[in-house]
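Lab notebook, design round three. We kept the backbone fixed and only want residue identities now. Task for the bench partner: fill in a sequence for the structure below.
Input C-alpha cells:
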C-alpha cells in the first residue's frame, strides 16, 4: 500500500480487518465526523488526513479487542501507513490501552468523538426516524445520564475528551450531532 493513503485505500484496509458491518459503519461515521470537524476548526486543507485517521482508528478492534490501539500500530506499519496516521489513530486509546497522549487538536477531537458517536448513534436508533437529522442535544443528554443505555460507550472518556478540548459537554454533543448529520448514510 502506498504510504499516502486515500479515503478508498483506508476503507479497503478497514474492511480487510473488519468483517462486521457495525465496525465498518463506525469507521465510516468517525471518518466523516473527523472530516466535518477539520473544516469547522480551520483545518480544511487537512480534511483528508482527519478523515483517514477516523476511518482507521479502530482498525484492530474486531480481531484484537484485547490489544486495541496496540496491534493496529503494527498492522498499519505492515501496510506502510505513515507514522502521523498511526500516532493519531492510536492516541484515542490514551489512558485506556496505550500511553500515547492526544497532542494535536485533531487527536483530541478523535478522542472526544469516538465514544460519543456510538452514544449518539444508539440514541438515533431509538427514534422513529432512526436518524440523527432530528436528534436534539437534550435527548442525547438524557441517554448520557442513563448509564445502562449504550453501556459500552464510556461517559468518562467522552467527558475527558470534552475537557481536553476545553469544550462544555453540551457543546461537544451539539457539534458532534451536526457532524454526524453531515455524513449520515
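Proposed sequence:
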Amino acid at each position: 500500500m502506498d504510504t499516502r493513503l486515500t479515503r478508498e485505500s483506508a476503507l479497503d484496509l478497514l474492511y480487510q480487518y473488519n468483517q462486521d458491518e457495525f465496525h465498518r459503519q463506525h469507521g465510516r461515521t468517525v471518518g466523516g465526523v473527523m472530516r466535518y470537524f477539520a473544516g469547522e476548526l480551520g483545518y480544511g486543507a487537512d480534511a483528508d488526513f482527519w478523515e483517514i485517521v477516523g476511518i482507521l482508528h479502530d482498525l484492530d478492534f474486531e480481531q484484537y479487542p484485547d490489544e486495541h490501539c496496540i496491534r493496529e500500530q503494527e498492522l498499519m506499519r505492515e501496510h506502510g501507513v505513515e507514522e502521523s496516521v498511526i500516532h493519531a489513530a492510536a492516541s484515542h486509546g490514551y489512558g485506556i490501552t496505550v500511553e500515547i497522549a492526544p497532542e494535536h487538536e485533531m487527536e483530541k477531537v478523535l478522542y472526544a468523538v469516538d465514544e460519543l458517536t456510538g452514544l449518539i448513534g444508539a440514541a438515533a436508533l431509538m427514534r422513529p426516524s432512526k436518524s440523527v437529522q432530528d436528534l436534539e442535544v437534550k435527548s442525547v443528554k438524557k441517554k448520557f445520564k442513563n448509564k445502562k443505555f449504550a453501556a459500552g460507550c464510556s461517559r468518562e472518556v467522552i467527558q475527558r475528551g470534552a475537557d481536553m478540548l476545553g469544550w462544555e459537554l453540551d457543546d461537544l454533543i451539539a457539534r458532534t450531532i451536526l457532524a454526524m448529520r453531515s455524513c449520515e448514510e
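Keep this in mind before ordering anything: Residues 7-183 form one domain.
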